[in-house]
Every structure is written in structure tokens, then in C-alpha cells.
Amino acid sequence: MVSTVFLLLVLLLVCGAAGTHDHKSKNASHLAGIEFPEHPSFNAVTSSATTGCSLPNSKKSNPSQDEGFDNRDDDDEEEEEEEEEEMEGGGVGGDVKQTVKLDLKRRWARRDKEKESVVESKMRDLARIQTLYRRMTENKNQNRVSRLKKEQSKPQAAPAAAPESSGSLLSGQLIATLESGVSLGSGEYFMDVFVGTPPKHFSLILDTGSDLNWIQCEPCYDCFEQNGPHYDPAQSSSYRNIGCHDPRCHLVSSPDPPQPCKADNQTCPYYYWYGDSSNTTGDFALETFTVNLTMPSGKPEFRKVENVMFGCGHWNRGLFHGAAGLLGLGRGSLSFSSQLQSLYGHSFSYCLVDRDSDANVSSTLIFGEDKDLLSRPDLNFTTLVAGKENPVDTFYYVQIKSIVVGGEVVDIPEDVWQFAPDGAGGSIIDSGTTLSYFAEPAYQVIKDAFMAKVKGLLVVKDFPVLEPCYNVTGVEQPDLPDFGIVFSDGAIWNFPVENYFIEAVPRELVCLAILGTPRSALSIIGNYQQQNFHILYDTKKSRLGFAPTKCSEV
Mean pLDDT highest for which of 111-115, 146-150, 297-301? Predict the structure, then answer.
């Protein structure tokens, strides 16, 4: 029964029934019937000049009296890193980077719809994994597309926006809103941002598995349904197109075939493919993003971050669940986190509340160093490793050594966790994948270990997606085995039972929330398994931190 349903789901995904949110390199044979180059929006000449967890208060107020930020060149950024290292060593003087703390609201589905939610999450996850597999086997990086490879001599992109040097910086925390999308049929998280001048509110999907930030834009010629109006660049005085001659234009892939660049003020078109039916195409541009900065006094103030690179999407397709677009948190230079490094340093973290929390309880996203988290004795670190032959990858890879079920290391050959010769394999942590997936050889061993250790519960075999499932009707505290991941550097990540068993039918049916990755050897630690852990991404020191936390109290 389960295998039959699984095959049907895979067939649906191959036919493009579900969208996914991980970028695939452009391919002329997969344009979903949209003839982008013919449209007058492309090759157009623009008249705009090309320009170069103290926890947050969830209440919103109108942004006003913002301070701007300039660009900073690479040498300045390197000097800033040296100054930061001196300060970490006890140096005196200099400006301290601010810390950004973001409020993540939850919108879980009704518990009586849990079964449908799990099925939909599985379908989206499989589509996402298929895209990751294609991308890795092609050994391509989101930011190293064919156009960039053909023009290696082109200068690199300008660094992200940086604070003005005049005056000292005020230490504070940035606040935005991240919401769980489960009520919208999504296992993703949403972040509220203010874009443009005057600032307009938009809800974007948060994704550590991709880099490009983009928003559905007017005129929207082919767009999915979103909550609220589209972003209109004509109504923003801070919007600037990036010209096709601008070095930054080479950071994105263009529609195929590439468009000739004939004029100095011609726009830079981009095409971003996520797999199956999901894609976005439009103009690569610069805009001001307004963020909420909590001052030491606790009073919120709004500040502007100018010249954020983003995609203004006029053609957008896929299952983005009412969002206005996507905010990338990957390791590439285009991601929102990378563009904020000159402001808040090279780390960010989040803490996701569990699905049983009150709907008004918020999760938290933090940009910058969280001293409270770093001071915790139960904070563990494991190394972030590079993808095979691709040291500047989008994804956050970790090196798994073994799996522990019920206090015993299960018998999985270590080479299962290694990168394959074709570039596939390895393990990543990902906010955009809901459940956790392990390479098929490992998954079968893990599943068998759980089935061997669970005693006294009736196995239910007709649930369409997850396996094994157990009838827990009338059982107050089911006795389920422990589960943990051991990394190659010795770090151990132990999980509470609610992070790897899901209540598929409230008070009646629980299922193992772990699955196998079909066709590829990629393993993924999804956001469901990350609940109630404070997760730290430190790209400067190439490490991933995790600490058990009651995220509703952060």
C-alpha cells in the first residue's frame, strides 16, 4: 500500500504537480511554455539610472525617519573583519555590529487536517529533493551560471549595503515577522518585510536552500495568487534597475537564449528555476528594505538598508502558498543573509516553536551575534563542510558519521554519508524542507531499528505516506525510542520524540517523521526536526550550532 502510494506521488511530481524552492540552473528546454525574450519588458531601456533574541515586540508601527546605508568595497569589508577579530580579542574602540532579531509568527493547520498536511508536505519535499539532485549531479552553483562562466574576466559584484561611516552605531536588534505556512498548506516559514520608499509590507518565504531574493512585481504578466497587492516599482522612489553592463548582472542567469546588451541603461533580465513548475523571471534590481531595529531601551526604530539586490518578478509560477516571493538565506552572495554581513556579521540563527504551541506564539530569526546563545553551556557545534568540488555552494552541508536509535548506533556504512563521484550525496540542514530525509540505504536501516525497538503498540499499515505508524489510542505516554545524529567531528545532536514522531491523527496515530531520499544519496535535516532548537549558522567560522530551547520563551 505505502509503496504504491509512494510511486503515485513520484509520478505526480515528475509530471510537475508540485512546486519546489531550490534553484536549478537554467535549461532552455524547461521554460514551461513562457516565451520571455519576446516580451517588451526584456531588452527595455529604463529611464532609471543604474546604481552602482532580547525578543522582539511583534506589534507593527509605521516606518519613519530612516537612516541610509552605503556600499562598502571588499577591502573595507576585510578591514572590518580584522577590526572585529581585534574586538573579539578584547580590543577597545570601534563600532560594534548590530544584532538583528526577527519575530516568527506561527499559522499551523487545524489538527483534524494533519493527515492532509503531511501528504502535501511529502509531495513538496520530494519535488524539492529531485531538484537538489539534478543540481548537484550537474555540479552547478546558483551563482555560477553559464553566463558567468563564459565571462570569467568580468569584475565581481559589489559588496552588500553597509552602514554609513558617520557617527557611531547603536547596538540593537532587527525585528520582522516570520510565520509558519502550515495553515496555507505549506511547511515553510514566512517573513514579513517592508520594501521600497515609502515602505510597503510583503510576506516572503524564508529559505536557507536558495540565494536570490525576489518579489512578484507589477506589471505581473503571469503570476501566482498571493495575499495582498503586488509590489509596484513605479510607486517606489528608491527602486533602481541593475543595467545589463553592470558586473552584478553576471550573478544571475538570464532567460535562454541570452539577450544582447545594446544600451548602457538596458535592464538586466534574470531567470531562476526551482524545479518542476516553479520559476521566476523579471528584472534584476536594487531596492531599499526597511527593518525594525529594537534599541537598548526597548523602543523600536525603523532603519533602511539600501541597495539590496533582488529580483523584480514579472513571470512567476509555482506553489508559493500566498507569499509575495522568497527571501534566500543560502551561502551565496545574493542571499539576504550574505548581503547583511557588512551590517550584522557572518552569522544568523533561528528558533522555531513546536507545532503544538499556541498560534499566537512566535518563532524567532536573528541576524548577528547572539551573546546569550553563545554563552549557553548546552550549545553544541558541528563543522559546515563544502560540497564536492564546489566550496562556495548555496547549501549548508554537515558531515554525518552515524545514527543512534534507542541508545544504540545502527549499522550504516560510513560511506553512505559521503559525497558521490557525480557530485550528489552529503547531508544538509534546510529550512525549506519540512520532514527529514536520509539516503535510502541509511533510511531503511533507521526504519527497521525503530520497528525492532517499539514494543506494545499496534502497527498501522494503511497510512499513505509515513512508515512505521502506531495506534496510540488511550496511551498517555507512548514508549518510543530515542534518536540522535553523531557527526564526524564528535558533535552529537539528540532530539526529543516530538521532533521525529508526528501525530498524524490527534491522540490516535503517531508516525515516524523520517523518510528516504529516492534516486539520490542526499540526506536532509528538515525544519520539523529543528523545532525547539536554537540553530546558529556561523559562516565565518564554518560551523553550525544547535541548543535545545523552549523557543516560545526566547
Answer: 297-301
Q: Which residues are catalytic?
A: 207, 430
Distance from C-alpha of 282 to C-alpha of 272, rounded to nearest angstrom:
9
Residue 53: strand, helix, or coil = coil
Secondary element (H or E) of residue 344: helix 341-344
Q: Could you write out the DSSP letters of every residue in 146-182? A: HHHHHTTTSPPPPPPEEE-SSSPPPP-EEE-EEEE-G
Under 8 Å between Cβ of 195 and 231:
yes
| pLDDT at position 182 over 60 | no
What is the mean predicted confidence (pLDDT) over 274-284?
81
Amino acid at 342: S
pTM: 0.75
CA distance 398 to 380: 13
Distance of alpha carbon 410 from alpha carbon 192, whole angstroms: 42
- The predicted-structure confidence for 417-464, as pLDDT tens digits, reads as follows 988 777 778 899 998 888 999 998 899 999 999 999 999 999 998 887
Helix spans in 63-189 (H): 74-88, 114-137, 146-150
Range list of H helices, 366-439 = 371-374
Which pLDDT belongs to residue 264?
81
Give the separation between CA 93 and CA 89, rounded to whole angstroms: 12
